[in-house]
Write a structure and sequence with these properties.
The chain has 8 helices and 7 strands, in the order βαβαβαβαβαβαααβ. Helix 1 crosses helix 8, helix 3 runs parallel beside helix 4 and helix 4 packs parallel to helix 5. It has a single domain, classed as 3-Layer(aba) Sandwich (Rossmann fold). Strands 3-2-1-4-5-6-7 form a 7-stranded parallel beta sheet, with helices on both faces. By secondary structure, the chain is of the alpha/beta class. The structure holds ligand 1JT. The site of ligand 1JT has 15 residues, from helix 6.
């Protein structure tokens, strides 16, 4: 019996073959899950089609998390086709480029609201939509954070504040939904070369710093995040909720 045999899992946040969400999607499929994946825009739809084209039984659905009507349509589709949901993977973040460099003090009101809306509030509204589809059998929700949501990192700025909001939202959701046996956990990967990271100047030196100082003396891969995702989505973690798992080669434990 595979770890996620027959489980129905919704995955949001695949932009291309480098996405963390794609690493989790592959691991879920290899563990026997049935998955539905969303794309944010027509522009990204082609990429998501490309990476999923050789896989059987993957459902592709549109969802821009800033649009309530798209969330409604997504979950009414899942209710009709699947009837219930076992897992949800949130791997979505956004901040304006200007809010990921320079001084945090310069963050605009609009930039602050936008980053929090897309990166943190989306988890809250997704959990609300998922609850009726999960509460009869229980379920597992996971979201992706970064150590910059716990500690200050140069340039991470607005995303750090949004990740702090995301992590605390996950814990309040875990408390709310726990009585329905719906678990909510946080995965906090180390830096990975993804589309989001591509525009970050100096990202290579962030990767180098981790590989020089983390206990495992290397960076981590999408596949390694995928394996932890499978654990948290599976019955192996049935007693774990409101937890943060760092998949960062141990970097978070190091001081000086
Ligand atoms: C976003 C972006 C969310 C980049 C992200 C992210 N979460 C992690 N990264 C990579 C990263 C970036 C910086 C960093 C460490 C990791 C870009 C688009 C918006 C969402 O600095 C220490 C700046």
């Amino acid at each position: 019996m595979q770890l996620l045999e027959g489980k129905k899992i919704l995955i949001l946040g695949i932009a291309n073959h480098r996405s963390i969400a794609w690493g989790i999607a592959q691991a879920c499929i290899n563990a026997g899950a049935q998955i539905a994946v969303t794309y944010q825009s027509e522009r990204l739809k082609v990429n998501v089609e490309k990476v999923t084209k050789d896989l059987e039984g993957v459902t592709l659905l549109p969802c821009d998390v800033s649009k309530d009507e798209e969330l409604e349509a997504l979950f009414s589709h899942l209710k009709e086709t699947w009837g219930h949901l076992d897992g949800l993977v949130h791997s979505i973040a956004f901040a304006n480029r200007d809010d990921l460099k320079g001084g945090f003090t310069d963050t605009s009101r609009d930039g602050f609201a936008l980053a929090n809306d897309i990166s943190a509030y989306s988890l809250v509204t997704l959990a609300k939509h998922a609850r009726p589809l999960m509460q009869e059998r229980g379920g597992s929700i996971i979201c992706m954070s970064y150590l910059g949501g716990e500690r200050v990192f140069k340039n991470y700025n607005m995303m750090g504040v949004a990740k702090a909001a995301l992590e605390m939202s996950a814990k309040y959701l875990a408390a709310d939904l726990g009585p329905h046996q719906i678990r909510v956990n946080i995965v906090s990967p180390g830096p990975i070369r993804t589309l989001a990271a591509a525009g970050v100047s100096g990202f290579a030196s962030i990767l180098d710093h981790v590989s020089e100082t983390a206990p495992l003396r290397r960076n981590i891969s999408q596949e390694e995040v995928g394996k932890v995702g499978v654990f948290l989505l599976s019955d192996l973690s049935s007693g774990v909720t409101a937890e943060t798992i760092h998949v960062d080669a141990g970097f978070h434990a190091i001081g000086m």
